[in-house]
Amino acid sequence: MGNAVENEISAINRRQDEVIEEFALFDDWMDKYDHLISLGRELPLIDESLKTDDRIIRGCQSKVWLDAGMEDGKVQFTADSDAIITKGIIATLVRVLNGSTPAGILETDLYFIDRIGLKEHLSPTRSNGLLAMVKQMKIYALAFQAKNDE
Amino acid sequence: MANTLEATGPNTAFAEGIRKQFPLLNQQVNGRPLVYFDNAATTQKPQQVIEAMNRYYREYNSNVHRGVHHLSQVATDAMEQVRNRMADFLGASRHEEIIFTSGCTGGINLAAHILGRAYLRPGDEILLTEMEHHSNIVPWQLAAEISGAIIKVIPVLEDGTLDLEAYQNLLSPRTKVVAFVHVSNALGTINPAAEIISMAKNVGALTLVDGAQALAHERVNVQDLNCDFYVTSAHKHYGPTGIGVLYGRYELLEKLPPYQGGGEMIDRVTFDRTTYNTPPFKFEAGTPNIAGIIGMGASIEWLQEQDIEQVKAYEHELLAYATRALSEIDGFVPVGTSPNKAAVISFNLKGVHHYDVGVLLDKMGLALRTGHHCTQPLMDCYAIEGTVRASFAPYNTFEEIDRLVEALRKAQQMLS
Ligand SMILES: Cc1ncc(COP(=O)(O)O)c(C=O)c1O
Hints:
Chain A is mostly helical.
């Protein structure tokens, strides 16, 4: 693994640790969800015109639209959801991964999901939605990487 | 009737008496006492049912209809007694009309498949309603595919009742099957089954009733209804999962071909030609879900021990109380307001996604169902993605409804 990728991963991990610390401030599940909802408000919103069916992530009870672009070699995600909690989840993922190189996104282990209890506290069908979101973000990264290598 | 609550107060002693027979209910979820309002998805099981299934495995587990040995006899007798009990409970004219299935889905697939193969012809029409569960849609689409029959849909009116006028206009000599839900799982609507069936009979159509949601709330008599098929799922009426029955009129069952092939359903097998057993065995291939059947029998026994009038009255009180309390929440939008309704309330809160509500209610210890309830065409008809649904059983209490209202207000405040 090159130095550049390692730097990307440590930057992502710093953001993961930040999120973990924030959630650790709350003991109560309702407060954790309150926080998740407020993170949803910071989500870089996807352009309304891009909310097309091919940008919907399947496998969630609610709709999630995700788009990605490249700026100076870094991936910039935008997203939205019709459910506020789902929006908080995708916003947290976007916050952690935004501004990284495709390689950084592809190589990163997203340990924060387990550590803030998102996965275990969202039922299997719902966490499928979560995994589908992560997968879609990695697919975008992979596509950008392939383009770079051309 | 509407004023029983004010006049006498809720019948809490009745609910408590029932509640203590359901061990699962006594637990905490996310640090709060569980409120179980997902009874239309599946009901909880009384001690009596759990014990009956336990006893089967501890004392007389054995394969049925096959052994001459003692245990096989005991198990076979127990299973056949359940068939008799089920026939009696549903008012069938003979016990051979009761086929054990894996539940409503299994029963409808069986009936639709054999009708598709041996009864329906190209251009024949199958009438379904817009409020059907996917279980009563997809098997008919498969039957239409094998037979060349066509599916037509009876529309639902704004309040969640069937448009009987439209139904009348859809009926014709081409109508060969009318299949409909007795009580809607998504809306709670109780359909006028006898009337729907008699209208179908007028044009000579066969009828199938999806009774998934009916048995827990009322007594059903298939001969009074005069239906040809009636399907049930035990887990919706305090019994175990994966078991139910298909009631079918005997003359029909005799004429129709088998569904799946295997052990039990045969008379004599050779590689040239196999002859089949008589109904119901012709339709029961393979070793049945014996423990499930025993559990289902126990659930019927339990239901028979309850005073159904008291159950109905109490559920009605719960529904009336909940409807009134929920209506006081700003932005409460009920989906399905049929005057004749089972103890089910489907709703949305204005500007709030049902999924968000479900997640937060769960965190507060309340189990409700959110989503399309396997009735996507119905959701399309209301132009919504889904609803939040509270469905009640006699073990539910008025305090639990108060907790729902309080939790909804809290969720609403967090989400807006
Ligand atoms: C109206 C209705 N029909 C059919 C079914 C299917 O029942 P099962 O899954 O037990 O086969 C259900 C339950 O989900 C239902 O509510």
